[in-house]
Amino acid sequence: MNFLIIETASQKLQVGLLLDKNAEHQKLLIRQNDLGWKHGEFLQTEIDAVLKDAGLASSELGAVICSHGPGSFTGLRTGLACAKGICAALNIDLIGVSSLDAIAWSHAHYKGLVISCLDAKKNRFYSRVYLQGRAITTALDLSLADIATLARNLELQHKLAKPSLVVCPDKQEVLDAYGLLADSEQKHLLISDKGDDSWLAALAKLGQEKFLNKDFTQKDSGAVYVRNSEQDLGIQRKLSNPSSNPPVLL
Fold this sequence. Notes:
By secondary structure, the chain is of the alpha/beta class. It is 36% helix and 25% strand. It is globular.
C-alpha cells in the first residue's frame, strides 16, 4: 500500500510518499519548500515530482493522507481540494489528520504537558495541549500569554513539576512572543529546541494507523477551522452594522 501525504496547513508546503511494501519495509520520501503561501501554484507540481522520485504512477496509490488543520485557511482548502480530487479520480480513501496532533506526536514521552502550536498571525497561535500523548483540550486560538496561563492552570491540576513544552514549526514567532512575556509567565513554558521543520513523518504515521484501524470517516476529510476567515469576519461585521452596508437603490 502506497500513501500520498499532503501538508498545507503552514507556509511550508510538504508532500511525501509512504512506500509500504510490508510492515518491515517502509520508506518515506519527503519534498518540502517554503514557497510563501503559493501552495495552489506548486502543489500538483510537487506531487508529480515526488511520484517521479519514487518511480511510481498515481494509479499505484492506495490512499491519501492530508492535514485537515487547523492552519492557514487558503492552504487547507488547497490541500484538501487537491486530495479529494485525487481520491475521487482513483476511487481511494482520504484520511484527514490534525496538524497539531502530528506536531505533538514525537514528544509523547515528555514528562509534562506538550503544547503544539502553529502561527495563526496577529500574535496568536493555533494550539492544543497533550499529556502523555493524549490530547486534553480541543484546538484553540490563543496568544502566548494565554497559553502560559493555561499551562499554569493545567500544571496545577495535574500536579506536574516540569514546565510545559511548546512545540511549534514557526519557532521564531514563538520566540518573539516569548520574549515579551513576564518572568512569571515564561517559567511555565519551555520552547522546544527541536527543529520540527517537517512533521510529515508523524502525519504519515498517524494517517497510516487511522487507515489500518479504519478509524476515519468522511467528516475527517473536511477542514478544521478554529477561527473564521478574514472574509467571513468582514461579512459578519457588515451584517452586524447595517450603516456600513447601505442598501443598493435600483
